[in-house]
Amino acid sequence: MSNLKTFIIGGVHPPEQKLSATAAIRPLPLSKQLIIPLGQNLGAPPRVIVKKGDEVKTGQLIAQADSFISANLHSPASGKIAKIDEAVDASGFRRPAIFIDVTGDEWVDDVDTSPEIVRGFSFSKSEIVSRIKAAGLVGLGGATFPTHVKMMVPDGKKATHLIINGVECEPYLTSDHRLMLERGEEMLVGIQLMMQALEVDKAIIGIENNKPDAISHLQLHCKSFQGISVQPLKVKYPQGGEKQLIKAAVNREVPSGKLPIEVGCVVSNVGTALAVYEAVQKRKPLIERVVTVTGKSLSNPSNFLVRIGTPVNELIAAAGGLPGDTGKIINGGPMMGKAVSSPDIPVVKGSSGILLIPEKESRRKKPITCIRCSKCTVACPMGLEPYLLAKLSKLGMFDRTEGGHIMDCIECGSCQYTCPSGLPLLDFLRLGKQKTAHLIRTRKS
Fold this sequence. Notes:
- By secondary structure, this protein is an alpha/beta fold.
- It folds into two domains: 1-24 and 107-363, NADH-ubiquinone oxidoreductase 51kDa subunit (Rossmann fold, 3-Layer(aba) Sandwich), CATH 3.40.50; 375-444, no CATH class.
- The protein is built from 14 helices and 17 strands.
- The protein has a six-stranded mixed beta sheet. It has a four-stranded antiparallel beta sheet with strand order 2-8-7-4, with no helix packed on it. The chain has a four-stranded parallel beta sheet with strand order 11-10-9-12, with helices on both faces.
- Strand 13 and strand 14 (302-307) form a beta hairpin.
- Helix 1 (125-134) packs across helix 4 (184-198), helix 3 packs parallel to helix 5 (212-222) and helix 4 crosses helix 7.
- The longest helix is centred in the last third of the chain and has 20 residues, at 425-444.
- The termini are far apart.
């Protein structure tokens, strides 16, 4: 495919392992009990507005966002509030959550549950943002930043391009790929709505050329959507990082410590675009998402449409059951995902995939001394020195990690993937970012 673009600095080429790429999205049956963690968005968690014993309907507001950077939570099914307690989440820690005993799937009255695609609209910018906010939308690419906030361009800034992330460069994951194939037209209406909210006339959908079916499918549909185009991209990880995608799509570089709006861009995931369509055109809150369940030993790698709060073990069971040689269960993909302590954790808004890694592949190499080969520096898409930042973090020298621009690290794992010494570079970079961010907040307060 000609005219393939990509980012310039760093990047790696891990095996793609898209085992579930041809698996059509299947709705997962409702669980008997849903566990809804409050902290499902970047920013402040919403405030619980229900109590034990309350009857709720599908789509009913159960936790309300009171802060600017926060997101509403809605009941993913109808049932009774069993309790408001703590539950173990993907981090392994116990967090506040709402437990719902499911009795059925009776929706609140104002949601349009018909399958008919609604293309026409005459909403104002503020109406679109208001409906997105009410629906509790967050970025479904993993960062979970509240979508309504992203649609509100700060004073003094001007958006010129909406860039839609259909890259899905993380190995194994295929949920975005399937969404583009199966829900492309609705997704494009969602992109139109975001363009209206941002007051931009150009939207670019970036897709790596290992998904030629999605590229051709959306190019065909784009003919009837003004201002929206598809940009095929060269396969290179982490092409889906927003700064890398901006460089590839429009050749602009986001300055260190700045956001994409600094160069006139807003980046959003294809799943978020579909959710915007449902929120605005159908008044449907974000209560479900597509999750890839995959792994080399799994009998039936799948893409499921899952209600938020569904225990992960039910997804694994529906994909053929936990393989006997499983060494680790990863929340996400192999590069940026994290191992979970239990398959009992619930699906949340940011859950893109569940990866089951065989025991042999799940073992880390025994680390040896850094040989100063500079492979990690060459691979870093942000132009950082991962070996140095990891060393400083290990030694607790967090005053120096800030000067080394550790906050620019996107935690892509390219450095650790290339390290011949098997050093846990990403672990120390994540630690360094946490500690450095704390130092910066302390200094500002």
